Amino acid sequence: GSPDLVFVFTTVALAGFLLIVMGLLKLGQFIKFTPYSVISGFMTGLGVLYMLLQLNPFLGLPGVKSITSAITELPSSLAHASPVAMGVGVLTLLIVVVWPKVSPVTWLPGPLIGLLAGTVTTVMFGLDIPKIGDIPTGLPDLYLPDFTLLEKAFVPAAALAGLCVFDSLLTCLIVDNMTGTHHNSDRELVAQGSANLFSGLVGGLGGATNTMPCVVNIQSGARTRLSSITMGLVLLSFILGLGSLAASIPLSALAGILLKAGYDILDMRVLPVVRRLPTSDLMVFGLVVFMTVFWNLLSAMAMGLAVAFFRFVKDQSDRYKADLSQRDEDVKQEEEDLIFSFARDCARKISQNGTNMGELSGRFEHIVRDRIIIVRPHGPLFFGAIDWLNETVEQLDGKDVLIIRCKWLDELDLSGAYALGDLIEAANRRGVAVLTAGMSPRTRQVLADLKELSRLKDEYICTHFNEALEIAMQIVEKKTGTAGSPARTEAVLAFS
Q1: Domain with CATH 3.30.750.24 in the chain
Q2: pTM of the predicted model as reported, rounded to 2 decimal places
Q3: 226-255 residues labelled b (16+ CB within 10 A) or e (exposed)
């Protein structure tokens, strides 16, 4: 009789199923690649958000619905604050802060003592300040999901699952940061998915690992799963009939506890040195803080990860270019040594048959220096490190041969493979012969699978650089019309 509620519960159950699938596919482990600037921004943004939203209840005023209202109404809130409610809140806050430092009873948490002190003070003196009030008791009516709505519910379920992934796993990272532990992301997703699936099947709402209860739990000394189970059982007891015991809890006392929790979420490792952060990290940190406070958590994380990703790609690309430049200098020296060795061998042969040394040396210099271009990709050739190949195309004019030395090319992705293919095709269009030297079997297989190897002639795929140089010299001699000259003959012999 309530189709809207049935659709909601169907969405919750489907979101839970999607979370289980993501956990089984081991997708949760990718959260470990979240940069610390994003985690720190998320923590700091949440801390600021929670503290601002608790100011009004702490002052004995009705809570605000948005963060902008909390900021714009702050002067008015301070002017109309209830001294009595604020006094209870301050009392609770002081106990939460001081209790762990002075109490010999480590198992008795400060937030619980502070909450009891605030509540007892309110009841004992009959203080007229805002309280929690009556809590609804009894189990809700059940609304079983309608599986015929799965197709319609898929998009909102996927969005709900995505929000749960970010909220839960980032909360786990915050807890790891506070406790020095390491969570299992995939197990967390399966657990959250199972809870949401069961909740949807029996007419419950969806949920995720919430940062604030976790922080309060840690403040109270919790370290094991038993604390979460205990919290759930206590909440269940309130629903089943003990809600009247919580009716007298003052909201300002709760706000005092949550203000301390919000402060503890702030990343005090980064904030004292925030002005000295690298520019890129500072930009990501500030963006995530701003969007967490003024927009929403999912958008903040998505934007922070996107900016951090592109920053990483840019940094890797710049580093690749720098390494490439340094490697080019080293390799060019090696090639100069090869050229010198070649010239020495030529001189020895010339001395035996009387060929003019000056003619041969000049011819060789012309071939290698002016007619042949050599490129040397190295390391992983990925999408962020291919623009230099596009720049190489402009250097093909006036050349007869392009040699691609693949000796130092470890890996290439689709973008890298296609960039090499585009370079080869550009050379072919200009009539520049393309040779490769030292290509690994893996690189060759990738290019073959992508149909890029067909752009090369089989005889132009060389094992060694010397072999490629010899073929390149033959090509140049043919193109310049000097085939059969003594210079070419001696050059070929030198590499034979």
Answers
A1: 312-494
A2: 0.70
A3: ebeeebeeeeeebeeeebeebeebbbbbbb
